[in-house]
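Bumping my old thread because nobody answered last time. Still need a sequence for this structure:
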């Protein structure tokens, strides 16, 4: 389930898009992805994580949550610093909250 963002070429390179697709497919199969490809993001919420996709000139992040019936994508963005931008965290929280409210 995509709430925001997309993985397409461009802006991601074809190789980065394929890596993102592969990792998302692994998650959909029920296998957890760990470091260095994914890390937990408890600051966003329970079962939230951040996929790390290294591209030619940028590092992409995909913020997602593992639900029992879906992988919910909250945001896709290019990251330039070690810290996740506050607006990406706040936007992801708001999108997931709205998704949960509308899913009830």
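Sorry it took so long. Here it is:
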């Amino acid at each position: 389930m995509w709430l925001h963002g997309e993985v397409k070429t461009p802006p991601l390179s074809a190789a980065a898009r394929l890596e993102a697709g592969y990792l998302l497919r692994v998650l959909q199969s029920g296998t957890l992805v760990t470091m260095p490809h994914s890390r937990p993001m408890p600051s966003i919420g329970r079962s939230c994580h951040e996929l790390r996709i290294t591209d030619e000139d940028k590092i992409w992040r995909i913020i997602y949550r593992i639900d029992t019936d879906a992988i919910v994508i909250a945001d896709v963005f290019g990251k330039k610093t070690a810290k996740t931008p506050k607006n990406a965290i706040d936007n992801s929280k708001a999108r997931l909250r709205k998704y949960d409210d509308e899913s009830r």
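The mean pLDDT is 90. Let me know if any region looks off to you.
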